[in-house]
């Protein structure tokens, strides 16, 4: 177990270097001069451009820029944006917001998705099963921004149940609707995967044995059936956290949440490689660690899986 | 894009008519909060840079700088001539040497007194080129600017660096006593006092010079009716009333929260739900079919702003060097139709070179702005026709596609030229090509004045080497007349001379004015009274609940 963990952690290093360089280079290759549009319909003064170019080493080639950046990063310095704000500050303020939103979305996914999956998996082809089938199809077919705008307009503007946007305090209660919007497509997938998995294991030998032993149904489903059916669901949920954080940009925009999506978007437009890389680095780490966690959870869920 | 700020400026819109909104929602829910302790939430966007006035050139930060600071002169909401604000008097006999006396006993938000040297030091800082202030060139009128501000001889992309300035202070600035300073210009400039309300000319407190500008700009200390409290990036800027303000009316409400949105539609939803008290410009999506009028009712208001949309010609391209061809293109644009069909009447067809809201501008002086396809065809024939494709360029990250397509279509129909419009993905790429003089077809441009005077619509746009003369238009007669006008002893004489220069411009058609901007704003039910300033921003001192 310890060696496995160490090996997995060491694997992070090349992935980390590879992704950061690739991203740095991609943003660098975006066409457009970062200062061309900065002063509106008028050229920026030459002195201003020269000042910024020197400050951000923009006259160097991309490798030199990248290595300067990495050197600073390893010393804990994320650098500054073109507006001379510390990128570490941006990361510290925007990450918790996106994480909070993603966690709410994940919780909603887990509760609704798993609940619907278990119910329909146990009673296949009933009315409920068909209802869930149709409604999940509907959710998958709707793009996130449609769900977002419709809910915002209905609940926020028409009925006044919620405020149309999230305040800067980011209260949990305000995040329920945005969290649902963000997680809506995944809810549908989770429900479907859980349903299939439950339905399949329902006919497995160990379930029949458990019932034959005379165990109460709640225990059969809750302990034996559910635990063995969870592996695909956990995989989905685990990788989804990263996907939710990276994909929150649309939801963040609709509900005016100050998260990483908007920061990345702004930074790409203004060609701030350092900001993009800084934010994505953390996102890459989230992905890698979540994958590791999912793998470790397998062992907990299924005693047949061991890591040596 | 929204025209960049660079302009606090401007003159008046008919805005001043104080708006009286319907009273609050009928339910007597104790909402009669006294204005004196009231708070409002207004729409904003994250400022691009730390809030240092001479380094703020975009609307997000510009708006907040305008609220925080009060300058020597201010531009009244009703569009009248600029009037003294912090200045007690601005005297000159020759439009070259100005003696500026400031009112005594006014304070910065940190309690220190605003003195003459706060102006002189601030201007010297901005004019010293190694400080890299974006508004540095606004001090070019002042004597000694060529010593403090050096430019890169081969452009910023090339290896050669700009030489270090030989002086770090403008020789034309002299502090006489605590309340008085003297400004000597390099050449007589009648419009100089008008410029002084622009944000580049704001005073800075002594503490600014002891800290890094970006640190100051994160927690600015200014001298206006409202003071800075806190700034949570991309979320909220909190401002509160400055109780020691004595230049004009104090703010009637206590707190102003500027909520920083990334998406106009989110802000609009908040506005509809009364969760946001003021939104300066409703999103384009709400303009279609006059949706905003039904949504907002009497909470909405429409006004005009001193901004004009142009299509500029790349005169450096030989195919566009013939003035007759340019005139033919201009005459075949049906501006009325564009205004009605594309903008639902929210933008007015342009008929003059300078925006008519500007003092000194002559309305209707653009003879090339008429719609006259017959003359256009004739002129095109005289010019020898146009070979090849005429591509109209715009930046497609903003809502320009519809009207640019319409213009291209009209040229195609009325002149028989093979014309089409093409979007350039981002404003940055678009401006890069424009700045590098690499455009191969006419392109959209917009101009919002920096300060309310016709001078600002001629010198930057039509004079050889003007700061925004990107098409490289050059006519020695225009240059001579504009120079004479700038140096005129009085504003009246200056305006007369500029009118003559504009007549020459009208013959050459270096660009074509298409429409004058309008602005559709909305406010919440709790606001009982508010005024907009000369550029359509909310005047926060006027707000009553």
Supply database-style keywords:
heterodimer, A: about 300 residues, mainly alpha, 12 helices, B: alpha+beta, 16 helices, about 20% strand, globular, disordered N terminus
Short description:
The complex is a heterodimer of chains A (308) and B (545). With 308 residues, chain A is an all-alpha fold.
Protein architecture, described:
- The complex is a heterodimer of chains A (about 300) and B (about 550).
- Chain A has about 300 residues and is mostly helical.
- Helices cover about 75% and strands about 0% of the residues of chain A.
- Chain A has helices spanning about 1-30, 45-55, 60-75, 85-120, 125-140, 145-160, 175-200, 205-210, 215-245, 250-255, 260-270, 275-300.
- In chain A, α1 runs antiparallel to α12.
- Chain A is flat, with a radius of gyration of 24 Å.
- The model of chain A has no long low-confidence stretch (mean pLDDT about 85).
- With about 550 residues, chain B is an alpha+beta fold.
- Helices cover about 25% and strands about 20% of the residues of chain B.
- Chain B is built from 16 helices and 20 strands.
- In chain B, the strands form six sheets. In chain B, strands 12, 13, 14, 17 and 18 form a five-stranded antiparallel β-sheet that branches. A four-stranded mixed β-sheet of chain B has the order 2-11-10-9, with helices on one face. Chain B has a four-stranded antiparallel β-sheet with strand order 5-6-8-7, with helices on one face.
- In chain B, β7 and β8 form a beta hairpin.
- In chain B, α15 runs antiparallel to α16.
- The model of chain B is unreliable at about 1-35 (pLDDT under 50).
């Amino acid at each position: 177990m310890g060696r496995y963990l160490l090996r997995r952690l060491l694997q992070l290093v090349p992935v980390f270097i590879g992704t950061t360089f690739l991203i740095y280079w991609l943003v660098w290759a975006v066409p457009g001069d970062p200062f061309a549009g900065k002063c509106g319909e008028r050229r920026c003064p030459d002195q201003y451009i020269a000042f910024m170019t020197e400050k951000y080493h923009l006259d160097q080639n991309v490798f030199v820029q990248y290595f300067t950046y990495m050197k600073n990063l390893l010393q804990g310095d994320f650098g500054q944006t073109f507006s001379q704000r510390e990128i570490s500050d941006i990361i510290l303020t925007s990450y918790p917001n996106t994480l909070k939103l993603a966690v709410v979305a994940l919780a909603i996914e887990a509760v609704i998705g798993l609940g619907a999956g278990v119910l329909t998996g146990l009673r296949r082809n009933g009315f409920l099963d068909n209802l869930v089938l149709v409604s999940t199809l509907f959710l998958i077919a709707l793009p996130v921004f449609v769900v977002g705008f419709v809910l915002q307009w209905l609940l926020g503007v028409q009925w006044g149940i919620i405020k149309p946007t999230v305040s800067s305090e980011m209260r949990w209660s305000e995040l329920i609707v945005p969290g649902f919007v963000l997680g809506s497509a995944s809810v549908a997938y989770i429900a479907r995967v859980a349903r299939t998995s439950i339905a399949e294991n329902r006919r497995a030998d160990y379930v029949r044995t458990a019932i034959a032993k005379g165990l109460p149904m709640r225990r059969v489903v809750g302990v034996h059936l559910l635990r063995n059916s969870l592996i695909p669901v956990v995989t989905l949920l685990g990788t989804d956290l990263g996907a939710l954080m990276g994909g929150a940009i649309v939801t963040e925009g609709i509900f005016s949440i100050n998260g990483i999506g908007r920061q990345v978007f702004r930074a790409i437009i203004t060609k701030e490689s350092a900001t993009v890389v800084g934010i994505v680095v953390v996102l890459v780490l989230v992905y890698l660690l979540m994958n590791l966690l999912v793998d470790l959870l397998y062992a907990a869920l299924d005693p047949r899986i061991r890591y040596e | 894009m929204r025209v960049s700020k660079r302009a606090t400026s401007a003159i008046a819109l008919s805005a001043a008519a104080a708006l009286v909104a319907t009273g609050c929602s009928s339910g007597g829910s104790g909402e009669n909060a006294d204005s004196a302790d009231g708070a409002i939430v207004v729409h904003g966007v994250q400022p691009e840079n730390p809030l240092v006035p001479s380094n703020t050139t975009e609307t997000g930060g510009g708006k907040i700088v305008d609220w925080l600071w009060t300058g020597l002169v201010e531009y009244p909401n009703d569009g009248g001539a600029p009037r003294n604000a912090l200045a007690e008097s601005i005297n000159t006999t020759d439009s070259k040497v100005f003696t500026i006396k400031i009112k005594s006993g006014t304070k910065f938000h940190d309690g220190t007194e605003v003195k003459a040297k706060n102006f002189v030091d601030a201007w010297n800082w901005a004019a010293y080129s190694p400080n890299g202030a974006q508004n540095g060139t606004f001090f070019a009128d002042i004597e000694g600017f060529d010593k403090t501000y050096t430019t890169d001889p081969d452009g910023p992309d090339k290896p050669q660096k700009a030489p270090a300035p030989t002086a770090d202070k403008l020789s034309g600035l002299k502090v006489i006593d605590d309340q008085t300073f003297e400004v000597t210009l390099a050449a007589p400039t009648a419009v100089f006092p008008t410029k002084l309300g622009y944000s580049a000319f704001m005073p800075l407190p002594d503490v600014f010079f002891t800290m890094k500008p970006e640190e100051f700009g994160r927690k600015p200390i200014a001298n206006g009716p409202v003071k800075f409290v806190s700034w949570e990036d991309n979320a909220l800027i909190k401002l509160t009333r400055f109780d020691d303000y004595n230049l004009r009316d104090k703010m009637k409400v206590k707190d102003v929260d500027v909520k920083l949105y990334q998406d106009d539609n989110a802000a609009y939803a908040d506005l509809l739900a009364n969760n946001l008290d003021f939104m300066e410009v409703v999103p384009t999506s709400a303009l279609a079919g006059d949706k905003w009028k039904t949504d907002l009712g009497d909470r909405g208001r429409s006004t005009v702003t001193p901004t004009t949309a142009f299509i500029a010609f790349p005169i450096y391209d030989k195919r566009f060097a013939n003035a007759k061809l340019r005139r033919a293109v201009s005459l075949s644009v049906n501006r009325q139709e564009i205004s009605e069909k594309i903008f639902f009447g929210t933008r007015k067809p342009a008929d003059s070179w300078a925006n008519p809201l500007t003092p000194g501008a002559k309305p209707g002086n653009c003879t090339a702005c008429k719609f006259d396809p017959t003359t256009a065809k004739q002129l095109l024939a005289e010019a020898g026709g146009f070979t090849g494709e005429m591509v109209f360029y715009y930046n497609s990250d903003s809502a320009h596609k519809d009207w640019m397509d319409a213009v291209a279509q009209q040229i195609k129909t009325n002149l028989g030229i093979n014309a089409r419009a093409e979007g350039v993905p981002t404003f940055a790429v678009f401006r890069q090509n424009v700045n590098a003089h690499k455009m191969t077809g006419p392109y959209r441009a917009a101009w919002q004045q920096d300060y309310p005077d016709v001078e600002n619509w001629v010198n930057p746009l039509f004079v050889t080497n003007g700061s925004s003369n990107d098409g490289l238009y050059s006519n020695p007669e225009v240059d001579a007349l504009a120079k004479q006008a700038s140096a005129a002893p009085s504003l009246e004489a200056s305006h007369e001379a500029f009118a003559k220069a504009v007549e020459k411009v009208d013959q050459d058609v270096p660009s074509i004015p298409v429409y004058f901007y309008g602005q559709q704003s909305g406010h919440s039910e709790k606001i009982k009274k508010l005024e907009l300033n000369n550029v359509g921003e909310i005047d926060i001192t006027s707000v009553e609940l």
